[in-house]
């Protein structure tokens, strides 16, 4: 009898190898078919991969506090190079700049993604939740939805909408951009910073809801602020997160989206914001 | 009779000179005493200066869409070098990485600030305001406040609080982090992208309000999403902006702050977010 311990798809997708001969902080990875979106990888997996490089970097001090990812171009299927550089280390914060490169049509490296990360030392202080978790039914009371369209990455998440699921009719009758849903990795996996970064980006483009029209859309830039430390992530374990997303303004081909993520106990784990391109 | 056309303090602070001998996108500037904060320049003026380099860059295409600034270390009084690099240009977006450097104690350059900017081509599309401006009294009905403490940059802004002014007693009795105020440059100056970027950062640390306790605090990272194009900024002119700021979570020495900025006509000009260090 053989026991198979298969690696979780998220961990497989986040696998990076460092090449010391190439210089400190240079990693190579490979896009994951398990997290493929329409024209490239799911944006959340790219964000998680950048953060993973920081987590693995031997010079890292502290835990993730802030992550900004700019999607300059879609990654092509295949290998990529990731450069992570700590440009300044202070007493309580460390500042990182990152980029992902792939060979372009002529073989020369092309920047597909840029990012900045701040890691920080957390300490016990006075604290307060100024945006408490909304009162919603428990995860078990909310039915899981089947993926709304054929993108492989949707299979990697269990989503149980509370409100703001995709419209049943694409009839331009939308009136709100608010979504609330319980969610976690599928199969379930203990939460860590990289998984949390990816979960901050699982929401459908708000224009689809607000407009009840499915138009081309893609994240241009996302920022995640981590309010949880490793202890709180460990407590959250494989539990569900409540995610809430809404847009603030749709104008001239771009809208923004604000996100909050709480664990089942009502602790705020992360807040996030993104600016999204849409076309119609 | 002589007519004096004095330069606005904001324009003086944003003056950058490019040195072609130093390479494309390298600029030199000088910190401005007019925007001095407690231990360095007002964060908003640093954000505006980074954006100014992009605005001046001969290769720029499109208008600012997104700006993220990471405050790695306080700038010292004196000259600085600013590097702005367009790393990828697409059909509708252009991605920039930026940094500010100053000579450290040993004379070697030290990174004080990193940033990313996305510029984009705006086009006419369907649009909607999903966070309408709150109903508040007009600017003339709100009294201007005198600067609450001795920081020179506070003299550069006219602020007329609607709600959420600083507490009159620092007695730990705070119960909200919400502020709404009318504001503009002082003296009045026609709004542009750089001025708007700076205005996104004028709010006092939310912990001071929520806690009614004045503790050391400083922005670690700020992101501004520009929803207005140049036309709308020109229409706004020297009018007031309504700024609204609130925190979502205070935990372990860091809190976040979400911001919306509308013009007097109720058009959303920008949304912004920041993560702030606090100590107590």
Automatic annotation (TrEMBL), chains A, B:
It comes from the Bacteria. Residues 139-277 form the Acyl-CoA thioesterase-like C-terminal domain. Residues 33-117 form the Acyl-CoA thioesterase-like N-terminal HotDog domain. This is Acyl-CoA thioesterase. It comes from Acidovorax ebreus (strain TPSY). The lineage of its organism: Bacteria, Pseudomonadati, Pseudomonadota, Betaproteobacteria, Burkholderiales.
